[in-house]
Write a structure and sequence with these properties.
The complex is a heterodimer of chains A (about 100) and B (about 180). Chain A has about 100 residues and is mainly β. Chain A contains two helices and six strands; from the N terminus they run H-E-E-E-E-E-E-H. In chain A, a hairpin with a 4-residue loop joins strand 1 and strand 2. Classes of the chains: A mainly beta (about 100), B alpha+beta (about 180). Chain A: One of its GO terms (biological process) is rRNA processing.
Chain lengths: ~100, ~180
């Protein structure tokens, strides 16, 4: 296969569809990708944030963010286009 | 009296000689001790390396330090379609088939799994692992086709080249707990 996929092209194709973002620490977000820039700052719609509860480390806090958000690309580590998020993958945690 | 004159003559000769010699050398070649035209026998390793470096650099057209546009120390083209392990800065570890990359080391991985660390509420209750985000496990969760940000990548290694070995640091064992090698 001589044609390799360019990462930012894949993100570009994902504009308009749901995306799941894994941040550098333990935080994850899902939302509909509206756009991004050279630094991969992201604009997400209908975003939901999953983060560990600072008081009780084994609990996950789910925050529904009502408006469009601008997510700073500084700590974005992994992006899964077309995925609905942790609920999606925890189900298949059989390995 | 004569010797003084002779000395002066000799010094002029010497100066003329060195001037002619220096101007006969091509300008861009520096004078190095190991240069064959000097007839010097001494070839210290440093000068030898320097000479080789010069010829290598001019032969390859200035690659390496001068730099072409896409020169990376990591040849990701070799790893395309292979299974690779990627470690991220925050401690995440992922594994998948490398489908694409760019010069900033953003990566596209297919059939990607993420190794689970000890914090997630559901997993720890099920598997009984302690709530330690430092402790990587062998359990994975499926992610699928992912893009990994190059700014967060700390390691990319092919799975084929690695194997799990016994912990070499436990033999006499007073070292503080070293982490085992993973992967197979």
């Amino acid at each position: 296969m001589s044609n390799r996929i360019l990462p930012l092209e894949l993100i570009d194709k994902a504009i308009g569809s749901p995306i799941w973002i894994l941040m550098r620490g333990q935080t994850e977000l899902t939302g509909i990708l509206r756009g991004f820039d050279d630094y991969v700052n992201l604009v997400l719609d209908d975003a939901v944030e999953y983060s560990p509860d600072p008081r009780n480390k084994s609990e996950i806090v789910t925050k529904r963010l009502e408006t469009e958000i601008l997510l700073n690309g500084n700590h974005v580590a992994v992006m899964v286009p077309g995925s609905k998020g942790p609920a999606d993958s925890m189900a298949s945690q059989a390995t | 009296m004569q010797t003084a004159g002779r000395l002066i003559q000799l010094s002029y000769l010497l100066r003329a000689f060195t001037f002619a010699w220096r101007s006969s050398r091509p300008a861009h070649r520096p004078i190095i001790a190991s240069d064959p035209s000097l007839g010097g026998h001494r070839r210290g390793s440093f000068e030898g390396a320097l000479a080789e470096n010069h010829s290598a650099m001019s032969a390859k057209g200035g690659r390496g330090s001068g730099g072409g546009k896409r020169d990376s120390i990591l040849e990701l083209a070799k790893l395309i379609d292979q299974n690779v392990r990627v470690k991220c800065l925050g401690g995440r570890e992922l594994r998948g088939a490398l489908r694409g990359y760019d010069e900033l080391v953003n990566l596209v991985l297919d059939d990607c799994d993420e190794f689970i660390r000890g914090w997630l509420g559901v997993e720890t209750r099920i598997s009984g692992y302690s709530n330690d985000p430092e402790k990587i496990t062998n359990k994975t969760r499926k992610l699928g086709l992912v893009v990994i940000r190059g700014t967060q990548v700390s390691l990319v290694s092919p799975e084929d080249g690695t194997e799990e070995i016994a912990n070499p640091f436990l033999d006499g064992g007073e070292e503080d707990g070293e982490d085992e090698q993973e992967e197979e």
